Give the backbone structure.
Amino acid sequence: MVAEEATELVSVPISSSLNYSFFTDTCCLNLFQVILDCPTFSWAIGWDKRWDRLEAVVPKLTVKQVQKLQEPGKYLDGSGLYLRIGPTGAKSWILRIAIHGKRRELGLGSADLVSLAEARDSAYEMRRIARAGGDPVSTRKKRGLTLEDAVRRVHRDLAPSWSNPKHAQKWLASLENDVLPALGERQIDTIEAGDVLSVLAPIWVSKNDTAKRLKQRLAKVFDWARSAGHYSGENPVNGLEAALPVVKARPQHMAALAWRDLPGFMGDLRRREGVSARCLEFAILTVVRSGEARGAKWSEISPDGVWTVPAERTKRRVPHRVPLSSEAQAVLEAVRGLNGELVFPSPQQSQRGEPRGLSDVSFSRLLGRMERDGVTTHGFRSTFRDWCSESARVDRAVAEAALHHAYGDKVERAYARSDLFERRRDLMDAWGRFAAGSAGDVLQMVRA
């Protein structure tokens, strides 16, 4: 379409004798939009000079029209605000605006959630910011960030660094349950220390551990918000404990089997069939964490009887070399051939038909079937530690290394770089013999 044709086409609607209902017709509204979108037409009529003249004769949308319009297209309300109807019938608001000399099209939300009046208010505010030389896009991003937005952003960034997917789920779930219902929809830059206190104080005494974890997680969220420019004040979590009652921590230990009862338990366990029974037996003999045993792969085990748990599967994010006793290697032989990759594959495959490891409830269900309700999987590590202190009288550093614990302060760890592997080999052999009920006299493996 040439410029002359475009100008002639529009001359009819602009005439003083124009019937107002012309523009309420859907077809004409769409035709008018095509004309406005035509670059040649914009050049021909002088966009800035005639835009106001065109809008003056186009009636603004009404609430009833917004509800009734169904045909896909864009419908002008005025001052660059449009109702857009997509091919599926979804309705949304868009604003055409010049920002720093460049024409932009900004979304203002779904028409199902944002009313006509609210869309006009948002459009007015954005035009005001643009006229003042600002950028309404960046301003909206900063002003529009809610606490829930920030929580999910921080969770998304941190999740890859956590080895346990269950921890990632719990991290988000705790905030969703105890914080977001009260503060989630608030703009993050409006939240103050008193607001955070209002969600922590009710559970600070009754659920102190949970409240402390929430406090730590909120501190991370606000630290990120400050660094990203979404929060200008001091972290509102800082200093809150001064306004909260002092709660004396009561140490809670995992339910553990007494070390003298371990041989009898292991005898019962060996008589049971199934992958979960062999995996638990292997976990006890190697004193590793549950997830490390359940995720064991054949590629991690060397022919000379050393299992190297990769850093990404350990709690400390440090590789862990585990010397395998003859009893632990016997367990491996019992499950060899079940799967080429996983040492302890689950009897149930994934939805894609691929093998997967045992679930985190496999051991608790097994212990339930064994009627050992007062015992936990992690508690066997405590059983081992008690045995080291009371029976084998092992040097503390060796026992802690076997459990893959960081031992000593930063200075000690900086100089003590050995993982004490050879001494741990002797320790794990003695532990295997004891667990099998054939320990005999246990040598005291103390440092000379």
